[in-house]
Design a protein that fits this description.
Length: 742
Amino acid sequence: MAANSENTSAPATNDERAQRRLRRQALIDAGVNPYPVHSSVTAHAAELEERYAELADGECTEDVYSLAGRIRAFRKQGKIAFIVLEDVSGSIQLFCRVNDLPEEDWALLSSLDLGDIVGATGTVIRTKRGQLSLAPTHLEILSKSLRPLPEKFHGLTDREVRYRQRYVDLIMNADVRDTFRKRSQIISLIRRYMEADGYMEVETPMMHAILGGANAKPFVTHFNALDRDFYLRIATELPLKRCIVGGLERVFEIGRQFRNEGMDLTHNPEFTSMEAYCAYSDLEGMKALTEGLFKTIAREVCGCEEGHEVIEYQGQAVDMSGTWEAIPLSEVASRAVGEHVDMDTPIERLRELCEKHDIEWQENWGAGKLVFELYDELGEATLVNPTFVCDYPEEVSPLSKRKDEDPRLTERFELVICGHEYANAFTELNDPVDQAGRFAEQVAAKGFGDDEAMGYDYDYVRALEYGMPPAGGIGYGIDRMIMLFCDAPAIRDVLLFPQMKPEVITRADIASQLPESTDNAAASVDALADDAENGAANEAAAAHAEAPALEAGLTRDAAFDLLKQYNEDPFHIAHGETLEGLMRYYAAKYDPENVEFWGQVGLLHDLDWEKFQDAVQHTVKGAELIEAAGGTKELARAIQTHNSDNNPDLPAPSSKMECVLFACDELSGLIQAAVLMRPSKSVMDFEVKSLKKKFKDKKFAAGCDRDVIRRGAELNGMELDELFASVIDAMKAIQPTCDAVN
């Protein structure tokens, strides 16, 4: 742990942070500033290793350098001390000798800890054991580290901690530092490649008045000066194509996009993309651009030889050399199902194939959508080497230009590598009348509840009316590209600061960081806790953890009789029993002393809905009925919280039980609706990826409010995918019980 073994003032506590704070104060009391204003660096470790590679063992030089870095190892033996100093380039040893250092500098060694940042000035030597070293004649502290680094041999391995505290991750893991150096190198290389190919980099607005360029749920912000809401951009497509109209024949933009959606291995709400548009080009031009770009990265970043651009991704060899295969989507689907399918295959046969492979389908789907589902569920994952999947059905590509020879198909490809999409390209639509009609269709979809549909962009249609040349366009997921070339399994591994669920921060955590006093008026710990991320939720959770056992006031049989008294529809009764099962399942995990109470909350949560059906007053009457039957006020209150989004006069969810009810109610309904579409009609073979598709399809189970589901995830401190998986697992766990009851 700490290098110091000669401290004269022993701390009053064994806490390592407290000891370090005492050593910090001791330095200040001795007149040493642990955070000085000035520092000097004239060389780096790797530079000296290269320059003095031929220096013989035991040989000394008179060459003086100043280095600075973090202490990664420290050993003191009598009148000598060895420090391993790590800087941005690597590590080097400081060979400290009492006779070489001023007295105050030698004394400083007793106040140093692992993790401290120090500066050293001295001569280069090679020890008799062959270790290149700097022999300091001056040593100073540049930054006192008050937190110990993770334990040496185990390091920082918890992924949640690594992503949240990326600064520690970078300190401890050299391969992580290499990943982000590669990221910088790749993005710089992309820019140079595009510019060399005649493309001009442009910048377009981050805030859009009209949602467009993709189908995605946006983040909304308010523009005070104009007193109106704007959207953080979900794509750069429409502004870039305006540039093509204006005569900038080749344009590209690398930048952040924002989509208010879930997080998983390949998605983050804030991500980097590159879109590029080339006048007088088409899909073939986009294929050539993509092949050249990926091969260049493979050579310059991964060290591949020209003509043999082969990299490894997650144990799979990916061969990027030669001309990449271009395959119609229907052919990939045909390979996957073992027989030929295309747009002319009878609908009945396509449905049979979907059922055979446990793929749910809907009555209104045409051949294009069915073939796409077979490809998406079965075929895409089989593609390892770079493949351009072409000829997407118009049914799943509403904004793409149709093929002349078959208008049921579109001028579109997606680049697939190792079963994942890396690029999406089109021969761009430049007919203003057609574009206006498609915008109108999108607005109609928005009216039917699709909150990802685009708005009507009058100005963009006006731009097309001036004439846009034929053009090819493509969008790349930069983060996924970096995952590929850095062999990273998750998008968070290539984002310096990925989005994370709120961290639990207590008043004690905050108090441990504060000084005993400040020069000016300072807020109290309570005020700081309220201001800190998730402070109120932390306190509510702490209060709930100390809460006594809960009394429902009813037996389970009495609660069930009450439910049946006010509900005759078997669906409503079954829904109550499903929520009861889910609440009991989660109570066993989070609050085992109150399983019965949680269960009755689930059973009676919609007690008044069938008879009264008033969205605002829902649960108000239910609470009256519960208390009249002998239920406790606590039971009535818990039930009311799940309707607080419709009635602000009702209490909002605060306890874990209430947050779980809020999340499970809406989401379980969506899951049940989705399960009924499956051939098996069972949740037992239902997967998260299927639920994600239904969640994004706003026309499916439109009565299930997606925003309520998102809010449920937030209340429980979970990512959307994490909540999906949790509730599906819970429903699988209670399925045998539900089957027995029904």
